[in-house]
Specification:
heterodimer, A: 64 residues, mainly alpha, 2 helices, rod-shaped, B: 251 residues, 9 helices, 0% strand
Chain lengths: 64, 251
């Protein structure tokens, strides 16, 4: 942060007019929390499918 | 067949677990794609194309994640409360499933609204936190979500847990209008609503478009999570049924 970073557009963008720490940490934490929601929801669903598959395969074997 | 009969038929089919499971599964990829596109439009529009605020400079760009999070924190709670009411009155299981599937993502949005608000407050107000009506009622909302989640996991019997948590969700709904009107009823540092005055929104189009894109993206993301979670709940509850057996053994 600070002056002199405005020469390069990319640096100027990342600098966020001196608010870089605030802006990027806000966006970062939003991305992280939303990603974790998606990750755990999907992982639970996949694990459940695998567990139920084992359950039904084993009951099939017991019956036959 | 009358329109009402057709509606009931549709309602019953939607409420049939196997049907809901399949339709939700087919919708998920489309919802995911739309969410990603809208999030890109919202982020690029908000971080690059929208002009800096004349008072807050680039710091105000936090608005594009803060406001949608705050909207969703209340929207998801209302979905939870309405579905709890439907479950308590008509005993429709799918409503309980939707309510339950909303709790963690709702708490997440509330947490994000509080954290991004806090990060925004530090440079603009000079403090991370004040105990004013808006922030306090939003914090109470987080506790309501956590209470709902805690109550559900504390009671083993699914029906009893659904009823107890449903009553909590309904009673807690009184907090939603308090959050919404808190900036009108009490003195606060928090700025009043700018977008909901739809006839004459006091916000530029170049700011409004990314804000609304982001809001829609968050709503679709919530829909995605609710559908994934509801499908899991359905599988769990119906694990002995024929359709689940066919589904898992055919894979």
């Amino acid at each position: 942060m600070g002056e002199g970073t405005g020469d390069i557009p990319m640096m100027e963008f990342l600098n966020m007019g001196g608010y870089a720490g605030y802006v990027w940490s806000s966006y970062g934490i939003v991305v992280l929390v939303l990603y974790l929601n998606m990750f755990f929801s999907r992982r639970r669903h996949q694990a459940l499918l695998r567990r139920l598959k084992r359950l039904h395969n084993s009951t099939d074997n017991n019956e036959s | 067949m009358s329109k009402v009969d057709k509606l009931w038929l549709w309602f019953h089919r939607m409420a049939s677990p196997a049907y809901f499971y399949n339709i939700a599964g087919r919708l998920l990829p489309w919802i995911a794609v739309a969410t990603i596109i809208l999030m890109l439009v919202g982020s690029v529009g908000g971080l690059v194309y929208a002009p800096a605020d004349y008072q807050q400079g680039d710091g105000f760009r936090i608005i594009y994640v803060h406001v949608p999070s705050a909207w969703m924190s209340m929207f998801v709670y209302m979905v939870m409360a309405v579905n709890s009411a439907i479950f308590l009155i008509w005993h429709i299981k799918l409503s309980d499933i939707v309510a339950r599937s909303s709790a963690v993502i709702g708490a997440s949005f509330t947490f994000l609204a509080l954290v991004t608000g806090s990060i925004w407050g530090k440079p603009m107000w000079g403090t991370w936190w004040i105990w004013d009506a808006r922030l306090t009622s939003e914090l109470i909302l987080l506790f309501l979500y956590l209470g709902y989640i805690g109550l559900r996991s504390a009671i083993d019997d699914r029906r009893v847990a659904g009823r107890a948590a449903g009553i909590l969700a309904l009673v807690g709904a009184i907090n939603i209008p308090i959050i919404h009107y808190s900036v009108v009823w009490w003195n606060t540092l928090h700025q009043p609503a700018s977008v909901s005055k739809l006839d004459n929104p006091s916000i530029e189009l170049s700011m409004l478009i990314p804000l609304l894109s982001m809001a829609l993206a968050f709503k679709l993301f919530y829909l995605f999570i609710v559908l994934v979670n509801s499908r899991s709940e359905l599988l769990e509850q119906e694990k002995r049924s024929q359709w689940v057996k066919e589904l898992v053994t055919s894979q």
